Inverse folding.
């Protein structure tokens, strides 16, 4: 398994989240590797209210279509249009340039540490 940044929080559905304000959300390298070549992203719009644990978009790869779940409740304040235009950046840099959205967080959902997520992903 690739190294997971220890300063991020993770979900059971393979999303990651920063502690910043606004918080940045993306998918993990584990998810990006499992999906294969990502070819399409459907993300929520700026200004959209999202709720922790609910589906907020889709990620399509050459293998499958997967749902994207929100790790938090809040309002989307930015969408990574560069990733929408070139979804392959999510494969090449899932914890950096491949981020998906930024959210003003009202409440966090259930989150895992890097160690807890690594144990979940390995199991």
């Amino acid at each position: 398994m690739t190294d997971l940044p220890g300063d991020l929080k993770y979900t059971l559905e393979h999303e990651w989240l920063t502690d910043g304000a606004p918080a940045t959300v993306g998918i993990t390298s584990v998810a990006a590797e499992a999906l294969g070549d990502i070819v399409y992203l459907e993300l929520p719009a700026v200004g959209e209210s999202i709720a922790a644990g609910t589906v907020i978009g889709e990620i399509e790869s050459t293998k499958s279509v997967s749902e994207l779940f929100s790790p938090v409740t809040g309002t989307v304040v930015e969408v990574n249009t560069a990733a929408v235009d070139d979804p392959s950046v999510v494969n090449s840099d899932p914890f950096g340039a491949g981020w998906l959205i930024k959210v003003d967080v009202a409440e966090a959902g259930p989150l895992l540490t890097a160690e807890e997520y690594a144990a979940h992903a390995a199991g």
